[in-house]
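We now fix the convention by which a protein and its fold are recorded. The integers have meaning only within a learned vocabulary of local backbone shapes. A complete example follows; check for yourself that the lines match position by position.
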Amino acid sequence: MPRIPVHTVDSAPEASRDALTALESQYGKVLNIHGEMAHSPAVLHAYVALQDVLREHGTLDARTREAIALAVGKEDDCDYCQAAHTGGGRKAGLSDDEMIDVRRGRAAEPRLDAILVLARELAARVGNTSDEAWQSALDAGWSDEQLTELTTHVTLNLLTNYFNHHVHTELDVPAAPEA
């Protein structure tokens, strides 16, 4: 059971309304996570700002971003994020089988797998990644810029994972298939 109610655009604090309206337009409704984040304009705006920065300056394609989100969501046991990013993964071109493999800890594509190993280490080991995982990602063709950027993708996903655990966000999107 959620710890806080889900705000609508009308019930949200004034400082959250514009951001919540934009998210509602983007997703077709106010998602529970966004309506809960709206309780704190600082939380909602931090979330939106990270997304905006990655959209404007990021170098990773949508497929890779969604795979990272799925890997981190599984690492953190966040059912909400695994469900939400399953929908996003489909839109980005990942098959259901590919997404299940990512959530099981192995991507079929060696290049994608290399960055996901690093993403999982970032999430599981509080940022302390191994030299072997870093080098494997470089050897797979990822650049220093992309591996540095990975930190922000993982951080964004940790924010949403932790938030959902903290407030007990209820699922309002189709559940992810069993992994």
User: Anything to note?
Assistant: The chain has a mean pLDDT of 98.
